[in-house]
Records
---
Amino acid sequence: MKAFADKVKEARISLGISQAQLAQEVGVSPRSVQAYERGEKKPRAAVMSRLAKALKVSVKFLVLDECEDPMAEIEKDNYIEEARERYGAKGARDVEQLLADNAALFAGGELSQDQKDAFFQAVMTAYVTCKEEAKAKFGRKNP
């Protein structure tokens, strides 16, 4: 079981990039990357997503100490980040919960990557459609 700090440092080193290069790619200061690698702080969700993407690992891998698979649920990350960009932190939490709740539909069966992508895209499309319809129906009315 590895801590966040160790995972960040090991992933960065395995990519052969410096702390400064990682910081630039993520959009944080080199001092922030140093703090992540020393275990002094963890980034907020939006930065965590950019960090995972820059390190080519999943958010789940970075966030959960008990997760040992760098690619665990990485296919969800783009959908959650898209929801964050459109609807903020609550939207990201909503999509993450929707994807987790609906995983039970698979009943323990294995899906191919194409099947997972199709499923996640369908859930995301349904979520965005519902959000936009609610916004149109209940949002502010222009005088």
Note: The two ends are 57 Å apart (CA to CA).
---
Amino acid sequence: MRAFQVTEYGKTAFTQDAAKPEPQPGEVLLRIHACALNFADLLMVKGTYQEKPPLPFSPGMEVAGEVVALGAGVTSPEIGDRVAVFGGNGGLAEFGCFSAALCVPLPDQMDFKTGAAFQVAYSTSHVALDYKAGLKPGETLLVTGAAGGVGLAAVELGKLMGATVIAAARGADKLAVAKEHGADHLIDTDTDDLRAVVKSLGGADVVYEAIGGDLFTAALRACNPEARVLTIGFASGDVPQIAANHILVKNISVIGFYWGGYLQFKPQVLTDSLTELFAMYGAGKLKPHVSHTFPIEDADQGLAVLRERKSTGKVVITL
């Protein structure tokens, strides 16, 4: 099979021939039709992600495809079923083996490309806003990195949950995408004072913070009493230090959130979230946005688009 493989951490990965895997007990073999890229894939290629697969490996955390073989003990899904799965890695290949328990059936009206792009972005935002932060109708939600994969999903879901949504992103083009997905107010982080603008709008009750650095600090200082701040990631590369006295005075909760961690200790949270989200998609409530699509031979170009912050929504590799 064709596979885009990392043979040495920090070095250029490339598409080459690789052995087709065989499903182990509890696994299914998928013919992969699409794989969505994530910022974590860049870290995985460099060897700086919190999880380091043994070499050689194929990056690609979230895939959609067709079940073509079953490992021992698997009764569901069945051969021929169309499913999406977050496997952690192995997605940039024509075939891959994944836990049957993590496979979620695709709605009939959802194509493979959308199915791959849907999982991490929407479920990260859904579990964060609903399960972790308890976002309520009428509250104000601030989303940083609002034009990226998870940020755009947070804007869309926040609006559906009844919040007033403030979207912060770099440049008019990215903010236009956020507005199309439901943002009520826009902040250009290249030119605007985020803290001042958010305060002028009444402050934030929930912050979905994916950038880190100075933006995190500004967002924290724009919070209302009893606000909840979700630490989603640090795309700036700058992990902020939190002033404990500030969160004490305002009774602010800072919530650590790593979506993939639930695979290890409470996977039902993720599968329940995806089931609910697929139902919302089937009802026409969600509109996933894919800005770039590449064939597997150009997977390195897809990673470059992600690295250079040229995408909005998701980048997908097709097979």
Note: The mean pLDDT is 93.
---
Amino acid sequence: MSKKSINTTTLDTTLIEESLLGNKEALECLIKKHQDWIYNIALTFVGDKDESADLTQEVLIKIVTKLGSFKQKSSFKTWVYRIVKNHFLNMKRGKYETNAPTFEQFGDGLDQLTNESLSDYSYDIEDKLLIKEAKISCMKGMLLCFNREQRMIYIIGELFGFSDAIGSEIMEISKENFRIKLHRSKKQLYNFMDNKCGLVNKSNPCRCARKTAGFIKMGFVDPIHLHFQKNTIANINKVIDKKIETYQGDVMSEYQKIFQEHPFLQSPDKLESIKNLLSSKTIKETFNFD
């Protein structure tokens, strides 16, 4: 077995080579490098932290068991996200997807929530944190109004800034088709927000602070265990490889900024889940681990 020095800054190609030679440390580092990204895409895709953690593990198992089939015809990251895309588009529908609304239904639901002041309630957490949680929950909910393909294209193309070249490889469509589908998704989402959301259009009556109590009552915000603010590593716009080109003079850039200010989270039980994954019989046999 190779004894090369290995850490999370080591190139993916080296980590893959060492992993296939039976270096358990290299495979652990490879998983660590990509686990948080997979988790954050999953969290944005399904809107539930527990389901996202399960999806992350399912995808990681697929990645490591298929590692020997990676031919370096694309970057490893692109290869990984193609596996993510295929898994997410074909998986069983989760609790929030099962009865996912249309944009019109989602808007009607917001209208039906009564406007209330948080000062009328007693929660053991700052109001501003609850309001932020409500805002993120609401915006994640908006994305569930997309069909799965639209949602995936929006997440990789708009939130995480993948170019049309990489996005088309992941989605296995042409670059032109990727751009067209991304533009349509953005336009649909941003038209909805422009007509409904007070964050981007001050003339809209909907305000996060007024809807937070309603979100808590419906179970979308947990005032004891915050869903989207625990284990924050950074904001999305601080971790993307390339800063997104903004649409100068176009209102779309304002919506984009709001979504990219969402937290980028560390996947839960990271080290423990990696140990469990590497100790599984399938992985031990695949990589010749002792």
Note: The CA atoms of residues 71 and 79 lie 9 Å apart.
